[in-house]
């Protein structure tokens, strides 16, 4: 019901095609673990979704209520939010929110690079172990 209420921009108890399209996009991004990229590329519509009272600022409550959009742990979300709050008023303007999306994309890219490096190191380690076993087998055969 939270998602429906977020998308019911006019508070009529129904959503139109634009809201339905946004819902499908959010769900697809979430399903494919592309939340950061989605929010970065569609920062204006996401900002408008989170701006519940129409004051063109997003409070901490909105972030916590819709944290599933970000797929970020609560502590990290809080850190990024406060780092983006340049004015210090505990509410993000669109420019501050855009900065938030840049921070989240940077963190996402750092995480992806770390995962790739980890996979590469694991692959190299596995290759060394296989080569070591092959050499040991060859030495055993040569000694017989």
Topology:
Elements: H1 2-7, H2 17-31, H3 35-41, H4 43-50, E1 58-59, H5 60-65, H6 74-84, E2 91-92, H7 94-143
Antiparallel strand pairs: 1-2
Helix pairs in contact: 3-7, 6-7
How would you explain this protein's 3D organization?
This is EF-hand calcium-binding domain-containing protein 9. Residues 72-107 form the EF-hand domain. InterPro entries: EF-hand-dom_pair, EF_hand_dom, EFCAB9. GO terms for molecular function: calcium ion binding; calcium ion sensor activity. The protein starts with a helix and ends with a helix. A two-stranded antiparallel ribbon has the order 1-2. With 144 residues, it is mainly α. It has a single domain (2-111), classed as Recoverin, domain 1. It is built from seven helices and two strands. The chain is 72% helix and 3% strand. The chain has helices spanning 2-7, 17-31, 35-41, 43-50, 60-65, 74-84, 94-143, and strands spanning 58-59, 91-92.
Biggest sheet features = 2 strands, antiparallel
Distance between the termini: 73 Å
**Strand coverage percent:** under 5%
Radius of gyration: 23 Å
Q: Would you tell me the structural class of the helices and strands?
A: mainly alpha
Count all strands and give the number: 2
Give the mean pLDDT.
79
Domain count, please report it: 1
Which bin fits the share of residues in helices? over 70%
Named at the architecture level, the CATH assignment is: Orthogonal Bundle
Low-confidence stretches: none
Q: Topology as H/E string? A: HHHHEHHEH
User: What is the strand arrangement across the widest sheet?
Assistant: 1-2
- Kindly identify the CATH topology: Recoverin, domain 1
Shape: elongated
Helical stretch tally: 7
Level-1 CATH class name: Mainly Alpha
